Amino acid sequence: MQHFKLSALACAVLLVTACGGSNDKDDTSGVTQPGEEQEEFTREGASLNDIVKGAAGYGVPEGAEIPVTVMGQMKYFFDRIAAEGVDMEMNLGDGTASVKVLDPNTGDQFLPGKVALGLSHVLIDMKKNQDPDYEHYLEVYRSITATMMSRKPGSSEYLYDNKSFGEYFYLLALNRLRDAGMLDEVFDAGMLATLQERLTYRDLFTGDPASYNLNAASNYYAVAYAIAGLRDRLGWGNDPVTGRDDILKKLQEHYRARSSEGFSDETDGDGRFDRYSVLLIAEVAQRSMEMDNSDAFSEEMKGWLRKSVDLILPQLNTDGIGFIYGRSIGPYGDTAFAEILTAAARMGVLREDEMEMAYAIVQAVAQRYMTFWYDEESHSVNMWVKGRGTDSYRATRRVLGENLSLAHHLIYINERWRELGYNDKRPMSHADLQRLLDQRQPRFLVSHYDRSEEGYVRAIITVRDGTRSFNINLVNGASSYWKTTPYFPIPYSSGLVSGTADVGYPQLTPRLTIAGSTWAPLTYYRNLSVAQEGDVVTVSYDTDGLDSLSSQKRNAAVSVRTTYTFVPGQVSRRDVYTANQAVTVSALQSDFGSYSAAEGASWSTTAPHVATYAQGAVTQYSTQGFETCSLAPFGNRANALSPVGMLESNYSCRISTAMQWAAGSSFETGWDMTYQAQ
């Protein structure tokens, strides 16, 4: 295998601007090229199938180093439901009351479908393996599904909501049961009639059903498409009968209209690009396979899927960590990487030399799920307690449903790789995987989501430093998320820099107080440029107005030029504020919520402001341009609950003396962060 060393271009300057190509990957120095001869790898660890299904009875295979298999966890929930029925409770071990996870009032509108699908995996397996307990579990399945599809006493209303994703999950369960020859054995004619009436996509659209005016985020196009296609597959049809194909066409039109680069805007043109923007096309591929409609997954859509692969490639890592920015991440951020790579592999989008690497990443995601996200004490995925936090959308009332849907993701991913012939194949070693990542990925990658008519930048910049990657996501969080930290333009990096769901303190981002209102340089990004000289990568962009944190109005009185500089072991930010008119700034603040602890740290109370940490990945953090800084343990618990664990300290820097900025004048603040290599 031939290798090209980046050092050969140490004196060259590589420049990528907002007018460059999408997924700008023009620099391939140091990157192994497609078609080069493959090599043999050292194989180690458990296979994906070992983690998902395991040994007989879903036991953990020897050497798998997981507490339970995915199917073993699913069987655990089936047993709990068999014993406790709708009175089942789950305790997450945080000292709060147990959650009645099957109560009709949990607010989980997807729960009946998730229960039907999750338990069907076990039931189908028991039938296939002629398990002597099959009849007992069949009766439990019939009972719980009938209860969750029943009406309220004396009312025409149903006891449980089951909308959108719930309808899709239920229809998928029905199709899987039919494929196993079990549908009529599990459900009688009356139950099937009820399901045929309830499981439709009508609740996802407003007005005339044929107009397909979506009333939810754009990713729900794929949900509606799945519902329509799975109904067709059961012979239930849709109104109109062309619903499946119409919805797929509508989804494609959304891509073409709202993203010039092949990613899905989660809004209707506001520019909110996050995990789902990259994942959605992989979900469409999977849904197409589920409904036997793979031929409809066009070459254009395969091109979009390839762009999703290219976007995540420089973020891949041996730990199985996925998206770390945007909403609803945590374990779903990890499984999203696995879903994208799996869809690309199954649809023939991956090159042959990428398949082994993709499989190793998928296995790492599954391993991480069972060793990091799974909590042995509660027998549950943990997104909520022991220092972790997620958004209100995935509140603890949904704990059972989240377990079932995450397990389903891993189960279907394993099925796809088995279809590709991987069966019980062990992945390449972490050392080989890391070597391939180092060889094949550039120092930086710019991926444009869209090039808006207004000229605003919608892009993600990924910078690699050894085994660590940084991601600056320049998007509009839109009306729901623009002022929350997961959508800030900061260098997210696992275990180093994180946002916190649903909160908006000034994490690594300046916040200005003007005329009694707070403003920040968010949303209005222009003139992106990324340059490399040797090991130094510089990312610069303008924000042509400040963003109101109360109304998302633009304030053109101040514009900001932001520059990030990446050198091995350090990232820096400088903000140069330019007053476009005379303005009084009564306060300016920037914080750093860190995984590095305040305990044992030292910091200065006067300039130069430097905090030196004794614990954690960040070793030093310094700021410029502020009057005062202080370091303390995180007092605001809500701000401190990141998806992967508690932020230990907050270094807060402020200017409290009012500043009179004359028109045309400039002012500068900044910070430098030094960190340990992973």
From TrEMBL:
Domain of life assignment: Bacteria
Signal peptide: 1-21
Region of interest: Disordered: 24-43
Keyword check for Signal: yes
Keyword terms: Signal
Protein name: Uncharacterized protein
Natural source organism: Kerstersia gyiorum
